[in-house]
Design a protein that fits this description.
By secondary structure, the chain is mostly helical. 81% of the residues lie in helices and 0% in strands. The chain contains 4 helices and no strands. α1 packs antiparallel against α2 and α3 (65-93) runs antiparallel to α4 (104-123). InterPro entries: DUF423 (IPR006696).
Length: 124
């Protein structure tokens, strides 16, 4: 499980840098201020959780079910939250908004909240 956390963290970190540059340079001309802020929120949350996954990959005892749930929640949360925002923003900028992605974003946020909550529980 530590390899999954480390590889996912590194992948999310890599793609957050790429998407951040993509947003700052290429999308800046296509997006309005609100869309750009939403895109940047997706990048920030992806990077935050990339760093958390790297730390957890080195620190947690990956033999417990609780630790595995924490890692999976952060991975799933990153995918659902950040990537749905990217899809919503880019599709909206192209006047073809993928509305089905709207309800997915809060599910990703819920995964983040649950992951953080389980981490607090583990520490207590």
């Amino acid at each position: 499980m530590d390899k999954i956390a480390l590889i996912s963290g590194a992948f999310f970190g890599l793609t957050a840098v790429i998407f951040g540059a993509f947003g700052a340079h290429l999308l800046k001309k296509k997006l309005n201020t609100e869309q750009l802020q939403s895109f940047e929120t997706g990048v920030k949350y992806q990077m935050y959780h990339a760093i958390v996954l790297l730390v957890l990959g080195f620190q947690l005892n990956h033999q417990t079910t609780l630790d595995n749930y924490i890692i999976y929640l952060f991975i799933i949360g990153s995918i659902l939250f950040s990537f749905s925002i990217y899809g919503l923003v880019i599709s909206s900028a192209n006047n073809k908004k993928l509305k089905f992605l709207g309800p997915i974003t809060p599910l990703g946020g819920l995964c983040f909240v649950l992951g953080w909550g389980l981490l607090i529980y583990k520490f207590i």
